[in-house]
Structures are given as C-alpha cells and as structure tokens.
Amino acid sequence: MRLWEYMRDYFPIKLVKTADLDPRKNYVLGFHPHGILVAGAFTSFCTEATGFSKLFPGLRTNLLMLPLWFRAPFFRDYIMAAGLVPSDKESASYLLRQKGGGNAVVIAVGGAPEALDAHPGDYTVHLANKKGFIKLAIEHGADLVPIYSFGENEVFDQVENPRGTWLRYIQERLQRIMGVSLPLFHARGVFQYSFGLMPYRKPINTVGSGSSILSALHDLPSVPWLTRSKIVKHLQVISVLQFVITFLAMGIGCSLLLMYMFCTDCWVIAAIYTAWLIYDWNTPKQGGRRSTWVRNWTVWKYFRDYFPIRLIKTHNLLPSRNYIFGYHPHGIFCFGAFCNFGTEATGFSKIFPGIKPSLATLAGNFRLPVFRDYLMSGGICPVNRNSIDYLLSSNGTGNAVVIVIGGAAESLDCAPGMNSVTLRNRKGFVKLALKQGADLVPVYSFGENEVYKQLIFDDDSWWRTVQKRLQKILGFAPCLFHGCGLFFRESWGLVPYCKPITTVVGEPITVPKIEEPTQDVIDMYHAMYIRSLKSLFDNYKTRFGLNESDTLHIQ
C-alpha cells in the first residue's frame, strides 16, 4: 500500500543492508530494541516501503507478535495480511522447518518488558536471559542475524520508571498478567507539538549484522559447529554418564555430606533428615514411593536413545495376575533393566497395560540417604524377601517384580560376546513364586554384555578369589571394566559403548500357589523356567546380532 511509503518518510525509516543473505537458508532475525511500538520492525519487515524484497531477493519475512492480537476479529486478518504471525514456538517452527529456505522470522527479542526501558538516549536491550530464540534457531538449523534499529527509542517520551519504583512494579506485574506492557508514553499532537500520541519525527535506521552468526561459525574451521544431531548425541552421552556416576557415587556422596552437615551450622537440617530417615526406614520394604513424574523424565529418553534400548513383547500379561520377571544377563550396570522397568522411556505401561513393574536391587542401597529416595521414585525396591512378599501379597494384582537372577556374581562374567547366565543353583525366586502364586516370566536382554569391556580372571586365579570375597562382603562385585571416553571414543572411560540393547519379555509360566512347596516341585518349575529361557534365547538370537550357532550357557 502507498500508505506505508508515507509512514516511512514521516520519520524517515531506512533499512541498511550490510551483507547478502542466502535465499536457500532460513533465518531468525533478532530485532533490537523493542521501542514503544516497534515502528522500525513493522515498516522494514511487514511492508515493502523500505524495499526489503529488493535488498534481500528470495527472502520472505514474518514478524512475530503477541498471540492475543490474533484473537481479535478483523484485526487478526489485517495483521496477517502484513505477514505477522503469533510469537509462539509452533508458529515460528512451522516457518523454519519449511524446505527450500527463504524464510526469515523476525523476533523482537526483548519483547514487551523491553518497552518499559524505551527512553530517548537509552540503549538497553533485554537479552542476557533470552535464549529461547537461540534454541529455536539451533533446532531448525536457521542462521541467526542480529539487527539494531538506531532511533527506535527516540520517537516517544516515557514517564520515568526506574526499577524499584512503585510504577515500575505495577507495570511489570500487569505485563506478566496481561502479556503486554503498559508504558506511560507521549510525544507530539496532530496539530500541536507539545503533547500527544503522534511519534516525534526522528530518523530510524534499521541495520543488520555484517554476516549471519551461524554462517560465520560455519566458516571457522577451528570451531566444531554443533548441529542438532550432535547436540542430541551429547545430551544422550550426558544422560548415560549421569546414571553411571549417580549409581557409583550418589549414595556415598550424600552419606558423607550428611555427616559433614552435622559439623556445620546446618546441623538442624541434617538432624531433621536423619529423623525422617529413621521414621521412613521401612518404606522401601512396603512398596516404596514411586513417582510417575520421575519415571517420565525426558532424560530417560535420551538415555534410551544413546544405545538404543528397546522393549519387545511376545505375549500378553493379565493385570489380574502377579508376576516375577527373571532378568538375564546382569551386565555391568543393568542398563536394559533400569531403562525398561525403572523408567517409562520404552513405554512399559503402554506395552503392558495394567502391569506395574518394580525392579529389585541391592538392599544396601536403601540405607544410603537421598539415594534411597531417588531409587524409590523409579519404582525400585530392595531385593529381599520382605519387600517382594509385600508387593506380591499386599499390593493387589498387576504387580511385576523384576529380579536380576544372576545378581552381582554374574556381573563378573559379563563381557562382549559372552552369553552366560548364573541360574543353575538359583532357585529362591522359584520358591517365592510358588508361595505367592506369581507367574514366572523369563526376560533376556540381548546386547547387555556388549556395552562394556571387562578384564575377566580365571576361576582359580588370586584376583578372582579377591573379587568373590569382596562381593560377599560388600554385596556387589568389584568388576574391572571400561567403556569409552567422554570426548574421545578411542580412549578409555566410564561412558558405555553405543551398542543396541533389546530386552525381550518371554511367555509367562503359570505357577500355582503352594504355601510350602517341596524341593521336587521347586526343581520342576526351575527346569521349566530354564527351558523357557533357552527357547526365548534361541528364537530371538539371530534377530538381534547373534549367530545361529550361538548358545546360552547356564552356570
């Protein structure tokens, strides 16, 4: 419209180009400062008055504006005609994910709060904590272009409202409630120059940066640019590493911290927590304190995708029954067991509706402050008779207690290429299932042994004897293992190797309830369980990287 040319010449407004922008790419243009009415941004990017299409051929601009304006009838159509879109992630993402490039999303980064600092002679921009637009650009691989509009703050006077005054407090509260800021501004009148809503005639020069930020980073050979896929991969590594470090150090660290706090001015906090710990001591044995929120943390999805980990269902499980899942093999850290049964990352509740899994782990872990609460939040319970009896007899039906049958002893034989499980003399779980009438379900996790390399000693060696003795004393096996480094894949470290882990849940074995099962009955169901586990292994081994000739060794 010719109207916009008159608006341009009133101030006047000028758009200054400092570098070409490739029309094959998409861009996020950060506009600063907001001013009172964003006159420079509207004229330069919502109209052709300053000749944007001629200066940057092949680019289409869309200025982001508060979503509430798009709820106003007729006005919404008016602003959409100029290319304005709501300032929400959905609208911006739609434009930036369009293939072929040529889209430039213009964001007044400081937003409504920045308008409260729009005073003549003031060059304050709200940017220090504004990082959402950066994340948006990274997610879509869009180049960032900073823009400064000289003169934007000069066209209106605003009542002084320094931080800390009652006026500024009211303005900020109203801005948070309404979404728009309410600066008390004025300029000149239509027919007089003393007071009114007509902006002053001050030149506004909108200038882009010398080059787009991401393009500049791409041009620096010494700077390894993080693409979206690389960022996701780093998040996956961090999620796995935090699990490993948490498992190894959180319990001991929190115990030492609690003891230290007793020697400081914070001893009251330590005393209160200790009192709570004593009061809550038996909770792990009584079903624990499961948290759906913790089980659904996003970090577990990154954890799952690092390997990746999958859960395979072979048969339906009835919510009217209770179950004991026998998990094999132990591996070093039971990554598959934790991800599948201690979180919802692989969708256990959707795959087995009505079944509530409880992964059983060393009872000693539940004596460690804070760490015990962290474990319980994932639905993890102590692997002792009292805890399992409670879940299978006093917690209704639809419970599945997951027991890593081989336990700590089995981890000493975990290494890539080994398909060995410690099961031949492990019959306690079968007796428990018979006493509670809980069905037995064999579970095999292909790839669990592949994620770490371990130095395995001969059974008659001195080192193996030391490992077994320590295992009996401490409750866990001191394995000499390593994965890869955090920064260099060829180095040694605690980060596991990226090897797929596929957990297959087998067919349930129906078990009758017998208060005092004889040894013959226990042996019979134990033999049935071994046959079922071997059948499960043989049926799925070739699908998940093993050869037809590979066999499962029962120790």
SSE layout and pairings?
Blueprint: H1 2-10, E1 13-16, E2 27-32, H2 39-45, H3 52-55, E3 60-65, H4 75-81, E4 85-86, H5 89-96, E5 103-108, H6 111-115, H7 132-140, E6 143-150, E7 157-158, H8 166-178, E8 185-186, E9 204-208, H9 213-218, H10 228-261, H11 267-279, H12 292-295, H13 298-306, E10 309-313, E11 323-328, H14 335-341, H15 348-351, E12 356-361, H16 371-377, E13 381-382, H17 385-393, E14 399-404, H18 407-411, E15 420-421, H19 428-436, E16 439-446, E17 453-454, H20 462-474, E18 481-484, E19 492-493, E20 501-505, H21 519-540, E21 553-554
Parallel strand pairs: 1-9, 2-5, 2-6, 3-4, 3-5, 10-20, 11-14, 11-16, 12-13, 12-14, 15-21
Antiparallel strand pairs: 6-9, 7-8, 16-20, 17-18, 18-19
Keywords:
single chain; alpha/beta; elongated; 555 residues; 21 strands; 2 domains; 21 helices
Q: Mind explaining what this structure looks like?
A:
The chain folds into two domains: 2-222, no CATH class; 229-554, no CATH class. Helices cover 37% and strands 16% of the residues. Mean pLDDT is 89; it is low at 216-225. The chain is built from 21 helices and 21 strands. The strands form five sheets. Strands 1-9-6-2-5-3-4 form a seven-stranded mixed beta sheet, with helices on both faces. The protein has a seven-stranded mixed beta sheet with strand order 10-20-16-11-14-12-13, sandwiched between helices. Strands 17-18-19 form a three-stranded antiparallel beta sheet, with no helix packed on it. The chain has 555 residues and is α/β, with parallel strands linked by helices.
